[in-house]
Amino acid sequence: MKRHIGCLTILGLFVSLLLAKPIPAAEEKASGEKIRITYAANTLSFLVMFLAKDRGFYKKYGLDADLVQVRPNIAITALLSGDAAYTEVLGSSIRSAAKGAPIRAISTTIQAPFFSLASNAQFKSLKELKGRTIGVNAIGGTNYASARLVFQHAGIDPDREIKLVPIGDQKLVYEALKIGRVDAVMATPPYSVLLKKEGFPLLAHASEVVSIPFVGLSTTVQVIQSKRPQVKRILKAEIEALRYLHGDPKGTVDVIRTRFSMDESMAADSYQVVKGAFSRDGRIVRPALDGLLDVDKKDNLIPQSITADQVSDPSLNEEALKELGG
Questions:
Q1: Which candidate, 39, 60, 224, 284, has a CA 20 to 30 Å from the CA of 103?
Q2: Are 269 and 100 in contact (CB under 8 A)?
Q3: 208, 231, 249 - which closes a domain
């Protein structure tokens, strides 16, 4: 059978980037149908996927999930080549679908991004950041879009009055602010919590300004058509992980602590910061998706004629919920 060696090689290079340290229950020999899911960064943004893995929800539905950290562009390449059937990189999936790629967003685990704008201590307000450099994960990602919206909300033109600099994953973003490479960054927990404790003020929170689908499952049209039962099993696992996140704070904090090598206090603080942003059912909220598309249209990242129906398929999540009993 023909193999896509190029993409597999690239993916292989990123496997070592997995910071994921499974809890003891996950160290047992895996069994089940193998699936590969890519994700963009080792942050709490992908907590639901980590919970589904570490608390055995994927395994419950007969799945042996291989979680691979890659850059968003590599995630899309892997999806289209078949080297990875699924990705949690939602924003890039939606933008690719809007440009004609046979990809569909099928769930949303986070209803609003929990990025916080952390700055060097000399700055006391967003207005003081005019003319300064702001670190983001990448140009065109949700982190980038959130930064633009936060500054626009404060009356600052993100194209003319600040400079958005792509840094990489959140650990690199955190370090860039620490060494003074940039004046401020869009950070997620645990890094935003850590920066605040280290004396870097949090000047704004994207969740207070932005309501857009942030993280969730995407796959190709071909996979939806040929492996619908498998797709629904993945969705059921992640819906159960969402319910676990909201229903078992102690167990969730334990996974955060282990996955991210935090102490108990930092893990608990991070959980409190992010828990409200997570969905309870994985549904894609249509107005929020329309909002994300509007942002991308204003930035000329996607065609003006694109609608939500052309980039998403909410029917699978609805079927999964129904089969779970609602």
A1: 60
A2: no
A3: 208
Query: Which pLDDT belongs to residue 207?
Result: 83
CA–CA separation, 94 and 127 (whole Å): 32
Distance CA 300, CA 247 (A): 41
175 and 231 in a single domain? The answer is no
As a whole number, mean pLDDT of residues 62-89 equals: 96
Q: What is the C-alpha to C-alpha distance for residues 262 and 198, in angstroms, rounded to an integer?
A: 15
What's the structural domain count of the chain?
A: 2
Return the structure tokens found at 149. 């919206």
Residue 222 host element (H or E):
helix 221-226
- Of 158, 184, 208, the residue at which a domain comes to its end is 208
> Residue 52, exposed/middle/buried by CB under 10 A (0-12, 13-18, 19+)?
buried
Judging by DSSP bridges, how do beta strands 184-187 and 202-205 pair with one another? Answer: unpaired
204 and 217 together in one domain: no
- Residue ranges making up the domain that contains 235: 5-111+213-323
Which pLDDT does position 228 carry in this prediction?
Answer: 98
Calculate the CA 9 to chain-centre distance: 23
CATH, residue 122: 3.40.190.10
Residue 211, CB half-sphere, CA atoms under 13 Å: how many?
8
Q: Could you tell me if 106 and 223 lie in one domain?
A: yes
In a shared domain, residues 193 and 271: no
d(CA 139, CA 137): 7
- And the tokens for 69? 């950290």
Same-domain pairing of 220 and 273: yes
- Asked if 315 and 228 touch (Cβ cutoff 8 Å), the reply is no
Show the tokens assigned to 207: 């969740």
Look up the pTM and report it.
0.76
- Using CA atoms, how far apart are residues 137 and 135, in angstroms rounded to an integer? 7
Q: Are 135 and 182 in contact (CB under 8 A)?
A: yes
Residues 233 and 101 in one domain: yes
